[in-house]
Structures are given as C-alpha cells and as structure tokens.
Specification:
The chain has 146 residues and is an alpha/beta fold. The protein has a single domain, classed as Response regulator (Rossmann fold), CATH 3.40.50. The protein has five helices and five strands. The protein has a five-stranded parallel sheet, sandwiched between helices. α1 links the parallel β1 and β2. The longest helix has 15 residues. The radius of gyration is 14 Å and the shape is globular. The termini are far apart.
C-alpha cells in the first residue's frame, strides 16, 4: 500500500513543525507529513497529484492561501482541504465556506483531538484522481511571477 501524503502550509514555521511532527508521530509510517514553505509549493505538490490531504492556515499575512484553496477546489477538488487556523473569524469561516472548504478547525487544538478530524478528512476523499492534463506548471502568482 502506498504511503499517504499530507501537506501542511502555515506561515508560522514553528506551528507547522509542531503539527507536522505531531501528526507524523500519531499516524506512523503509513503516512508522510510534509511542510510546504510557501502556498505555491503546496500547490505544486497538489497539482502533481501527490497529496491526499492539504492542511493550511490562512493568516492575514499570507494572501496566497486564498489562491491556493481556490486552485485546489477548482482543479483538484478530490483533495480534501482542512483549515487549521489561529486567526479564526466569522469572515474567514464564510470565505472558506464560499470556497467549498468543509473542514475548519480553530487553534489551539490538541493533536490527539486533531487526529480524528484528519482521519475523517482522509476517508472522505475520492478514491482516485481524474486523468487529464498536468497542472504542475500553473503558479498561484500572476503572469509576472509575483
């Protein structure tokens, strides 16, 4: 059985590392939990078809996260997206709901409480990715690369 891939983007490297190490320990070697350094890196992983779950923290300082979520929902809708945020607001919840995100968790949360949410998210995904063109060349940035 192939190793399942979970990717995390959080603009707080310490928070991303804590989530990554905690989930990796709890899930074991059947999973690979990876921290992506940028929203674009997370998108490239999703576009290549190697992601079973995407966990993101849309902070007010990282505008690329909305584009990331929008791109995943539009081009890779079978990849479950879990919002895990320290910036919980009614407005953010509404934006995520409008983008089709169904799994939303406010920090702080114990990793043992997060585990069943992650498991449910992984179980809810569609079994197979549709065929078609590769989207790995698409970028979340505009045509100028910015």
């Amino acid at each position: 059985m192939p190793i399942r891939q979970i990717h995390i983007f959080d603009d707080d490297p310490a928070a991303a590392l804590i989530t990554q190490r905690g989930l990796q320990t709890l899930l074991g070697d059947r999973f690979s939990v990876v921290v992506d350094p940028t929203p674009n890196a997370a998108w490239l992983a999703c576009a290549s078809g190697n992601v079973d779950l995407l966990i993101v923290d849309p902070s007010p300082h990282t505008g690329g996260v909305m584009s990331l979520v929008r791109a995943v929902r539009a081009f890779r809708p079978y990849i479950p997206v879990l919002i895990l945020t320290a910036y919980d607001t009614p407005g953010l919840r509404a934006k995520m709901r409008d983008l089709g995100v169904e799994r939303y968790v406010a920090k702080p949360i114990e990793l043992r409480e997060l585990l069943p949410i992650v498991s449910t998210s992984l179980a809810a995904e569609s079994p197979a990715a549709p065929g078609g063109m590769s989207l790995a060349s698409l970028s979340l940035s505009g045509p100028t690369g910015k």
